[in-house]
Amino acid sequence: MRLVESRTTLTITYFVLAIGAFTALFPIALLVLNSLKSAQEIVLNPLALPQTIRWDNFTRAWNDARFSQTFVNSIVLTGMTIILVCVTGSMSAYVLARKKIKSWRLVTGYLLATTTAPIQLFLFPLYFGFAKLGLINNVFAVSLVYTAIYSPFAIMLLRTYFLAVPKELEEAALIDGATHWQVFTKVMLPIVSPGILTVALIIGLYSWNEFLIATTFLQQQDKVTAVVSFFLLSGQYSSDWGEIMAAALIIVLPIVVLFVFLQRRFIEGMAGGSVKG
């Protein structure tokens, strides 16, 4: 009886996983398929195979969206955001994990509130403030906005990793003559590196795909990000859907490749953070 129940459970599990995999992969497969077709073929039947493979969709998308420039802008913006969030988030999380703070509940409430608060609440005040300071079209200034938005999540996640590290390791390092900064950089950071990698991947994904702030604060053509330039491909009255699909695939491909190579570390980091807290 138990063997029959276990087989039934296993069958149901695989069935649910198959549905989940199909749901996740079908949009990507459809994107790849339509990126190789002409606009007329996509309109007639987006599910059909291409009659003629249109490789020129990718070259036109790359040139029309100016990806050679906008990709660099996105990489610089994403890289600066990742560095700022990981540096400030790890230091803040370490302090919150090791120091006894009487108002910890208040700090937790603040971090949760800032994580869930929509950016639209601060967009207009931020824009007017940045305009007065002359920071519009400044990539570093936009990375600071991203850092302020994503840091609460990073702090909450990294704090769980620091809490899991035994205090005896720090005490032993201090007895051996290490400073608090050396304990943090030489002892703690290598131990919580899976959590830092997880934060870096998530923040990188958010920053790469972010649209609202990028299109508000980066308005010059030589400053826009890849996502914004992709949006500008769509015309007001007509659109070349083959070119748009190819451009979307170009933008998505780096994230997919990065996640495929680092998926094991990413899953271990997320699981470790959820268990250790």
UniProtKB/TrEMBL annotation:
InterPro entries: MetI-like, MetI-like_sf. Residues 71-262 form the ABC transmembrane type-1 domain. It comes from the Bacteria. Its main location: membrane. CDD domains: TM_PBP2 (cd06261). SUPFAM superfamilies: MetI-like (SSF161098). It is a multi-pass membrane protein. Keywords: Cell inner membrane, Cell membrane, Membrane, Transmembrane, Transmembrane helix, Transport. The chain crosses the membrane at residues 12-33, 75-97, 109-128, 140-162, 183-208, 244-262. One of its GO terms (cellular component) is plasma membrane. It is found in: Cell inner membrane; Cell membrane. One of its GO terms (biological process) is transmembrane transport. Part of the ABC transporter complex UgpBAEC involved in sn-glycerol-3-phosphate (G3P) import. Probably responsible for the translocation of the substrate across the membrane. PANTHER family: ABC TRANSPORTER PERMEASE PROTEIN MG189-RELATED-RELATED (PTHR43744), SN-GLYCEROL-3-PHOSPHATE TRANSPORT SYSTEM PERMEASE PROTEIN UGPE (PTHR43744:SF8). Belongs to the binding-protein-dependent transport system permease family. The complex is composed of two ATP-binding proteins (UgpC), two transmembrane proteins (UgpA and UgpE) and a solute-binding protein (UgpB). This is sn-glycerol-3-phosphate transport system permease protein UgpE. It comes from Devosia psychrophila. The lineage of its organism: Bacteria, Pseudomonadati, Pseudomonadota, Alphaproteobacteria, Hyphomicrobiales.
